[in-house]
Amino acid sequence: MDFTTLTDAFDRVSKKQKLSDSKTQDIIDTIAEEIEIAAKKLLSIGEGSGLDQKTIFTELQAKLNELGPSNQIGVSQKELNLALSKYGRVLDKLFCTDIAKGYKEVDFDTHIINQIIALHFYRQGLFDLGDCFVTEAQEPGASLRAPFFEMYQTLEHIKVRNLEPALTWAKSHREELLQKGSSLEFRLLQLKFVQLLHRGKRSDAIQFARGAFGPFATRHMGEIQRLMGCLLWADRIGSSPYSDLLSPTHWDVIAMDFTRECCSLLCQSYESPLCVTISAGSQALPTLLKMVTVLASKKQEWQTLKQLPVEIELGKEYQFHSIFACPISKDQSSAENPPMLMPCGHVLCKLSLQKLAKSRLFKCPYCPVELSINQCKQLYF
Question: How many alpha carbons fall within 13 Å on the CB side of residue 51?
Fold first, then answer.
């Protein structure tokens, strides 16, 4: 959703409000000054002064009429109200209260929905809330809770600069991490080595390095050599060429990477599926509501559509797999019309292949290879 228009409208209202407030305050100050002058004149009335109450009040009334405070305040207030009215229209345009129009009847599995919600609570570390939810929803939650509970316990230790639980976890999952090409265990060991050295435990750091870095020498020799260079600056790492190793950001990064690797080994995405779904849906909602309005004007039913007639642009963070569009029909592939790989290496959608395969053999549209539809294989992204 583009909030630029909304931000601009808000800025205009804020500017008008400040101008109106300033102008009103100036008028009030001017009125107060005139009243004070009139009050001093009233106090100075006496014999020979040539002043009387009626004259003073008449002069005050004339000056106030000349100022016209109600008119001046009215003009600035009118400008403010106009800006507010436009801002309200922008809000109504961007935020439709009747979002139910964009809802499509879908048969949801209540058990799966409950599992997704419970999983969201657990992966956010809200274990009491998750336990309460699964209890009231009468869902089994132990299997969802246990792995994330261990992960958050380890993260709590990382927050207080205790790497032992994380190192134990990484060592027990070394094979899986190496298969994924992850360097998490080595970076944990690296952080531990620097921590020992920074605490003045030079001999402990050397002993730790001898026992820990051996299995990683092939892949991380450059980093290990740099760590060994730190030993020459053991008492003053902060003012050495290796001072970047003491940056607090290393702890934040290692906590984030630990969470990512844990979720990966649990076959879970790093981001909560519930958060991603709601966030993507919020971005898509304005387009969906506009589409429903257009369909209604053409007397078409949104509920009967099998696929969206318009493309909805989402950010790259919501793109999790490739999208294939058939070069012949220009249609986007779907479960009913999947991409099919031909023996020659070219790819078409299934429906396009079926149209080409009216006879037993047909030619690839892009090369002279002849083939039959039975030779084609479905592609999965």
Answer: 15
Distance of CA 192 to the CA centre of its chain: 32
Report whether 1 contacts 282 (CB < 8 A): yes
Angstrom distance (rounded) from CA 162 to CA 157:
5
**Residues forming a β-bridge with 347:** 341
Q: Does the pLDDT of residue 46 top 80, yes or no?
A: no
Q: For residue 248, give both structure tokens.
A: 């607090």
Rg (CA), the chain: 36
User: Do 361 and 371 contact (CB within 8 A), yes or no?
Assistant: yes
Q: How confident is the model at residue 48 (pLDDT cuts 50, 70, 90)?
A: low
Neighbours of 317 (CB within 10 A): 10
Mean pLDDT across the chain: 85
Look at residue 349 and give its three-state secondary structure: strand
Structure tokens that stand for 19 in this block: 């101008």
How many secondary structure helices (H) and strands (E) does the chain include? Answer: 14, 5
Q: Coil, helix or strand for 341?
A: strand
Q: What are phi and psi of 18, to 5 degrees?
A: -65, -40
> Two tokens at 23?
């102008």
Q: Which helix (H) or strand (E) holds 370?
A: strand 370-371
Cα 338 from Cα 341, distance rounded (Å): 10
Banded model confidence at residue 34, pLDDT cuts 50, 70, 90: confident
Task: List pLDDT tens digits, range 306-347.
Answer: 777 777 878 777 777 677 888 888 888 888 889 999 888 899
For residue 66, give Cα distances in angstroms to 61, 89, 128, 212. Answer: 9, 37, 69, 88
